[in-house]
Amino acid sequence: MLYKYYFSDQECYTTDGVRLSRIVACRDFGEIKAGTVGGYVETMENLSHEGGFWIADDARVYGDAKICGDAQVGDEAVVRGHAVVTGSSIVRGYAMVEDDCFINEKAIIEGSSHLTGGATVTDNAVINCLRGKPHLSGLVHVCERVDIRGTPSISGEAYLTGQAKIEGRCRIADNVRILGKASISGCAHITGEAIVCDKAVIAGKAKITGGAFIHGQATIKGKSFITGRAEVAGNEVIDGETLSGDDRRGADIVWAEDREGVAA
Q1: Would you list the DSSP string of 50-61?
Q2: DSSP string of 234-254?
Q3: Residue 182: closest CA among 170, 243, 257
Q4: CA–CA separation, 172 vs 41, rounded Å?
Q5: Residue 207, class by beta-carbon neighbours within 10 Å (0-12 exposed, 13-18 middle, 19+ buried)?
Q6: Which of 72, 79, 109 is nearest to 93 (CA)?
Q7: Residue 105: its pLDDT value, please?
Q8: pLDDT value at residue 261
């Protein structure tokens, strides 16, 4: 095996007392030249010697975490636990990726984003959050071109895909699906089996729960409460109202048994 880095004498300790060593490139690969000083790792088990990946600056990788492929970890980012960062993904800034998280393809985790549990982020998704509690946890799956910013809390088995935009202090949990070009912002709260797709907008302090289905170019804002199997579609705007049961508003309504196909 042709080694690509070695451990220097420079060491540091994590807040939980793990000793890490700074790495130095011992050959040229990709844009990295021999002698380039990298970040800190615990053991060679954290990093393979194949691929174009690199750990730069003061980034730290330890525990059973693995960096491989052409992934890049830099600035003061931390990857630990059993997390895997691979593909051409990037983890930078003050981001923390831990537990069993999986980052792949061209995903970018930056800012002060905090990912825990078994969160998966792939494709061209971007997570750029401010400092706070874990932003992604549980078995959340984020893919395609989803853009997440601010201080959201996304947990459970929530699934986010398409070009959805998530920002502000919103909360998304349970088995919620956010698809298409949906926009979630403010202090919106989406839980249960709710589906938000197409170009729908959820803002303000709106709460969407149960099996609610929001699609088309519908807008839910203010302190609206949408629950049960309620559906809002077309260009309908709901501002501060409550819809429940089988309430339906707007054009292009989809019957309950057809919702799965529309939101697939």
Answers
A1: SSS-EE-TT-EE
A2: TT-EEES-EE-TT-EESSS--
A3: 170
A4: 34
A5: buried
A6: 109
A7: 97
A8: 61
| CATH architecture type of domain 155-264 | 3 Solenoid (2.160)
75, burial (CB in 10 Å: exposed 0-12, middle 13-18, buried 19+): middle
| Amino acid sitting at position 177 | R
**What single DSSP character describes residue 132?**
S
- How far, CA to CA in Å, does 130 sit from each of 85, 114, 138, 181, 224? 21, 9, 19, 23, 27
pLDDT-flagged residues of the chain (< 70): 1, 255-264
Q: How is 180-225 classified by DSSP, letter by letter?
A: TT-EE-TT-EE-TT-EE-TT-EE-TT-EE-TT-EE-TT-EEETT-E
**Average predicted confidence (pLDDT) for the chain:** 94
How would you list the strands of the sheet with 114-115, edge to edge? 5-13, 19-25, 37-41, 60-61, 78-79, 96-97, 114-115
Give this prediction's pTM: 0.94
Asked if 152 and 166 touch (Cβ cutoff 8 Å), the reply is yes
pLDDT at position 253: 72
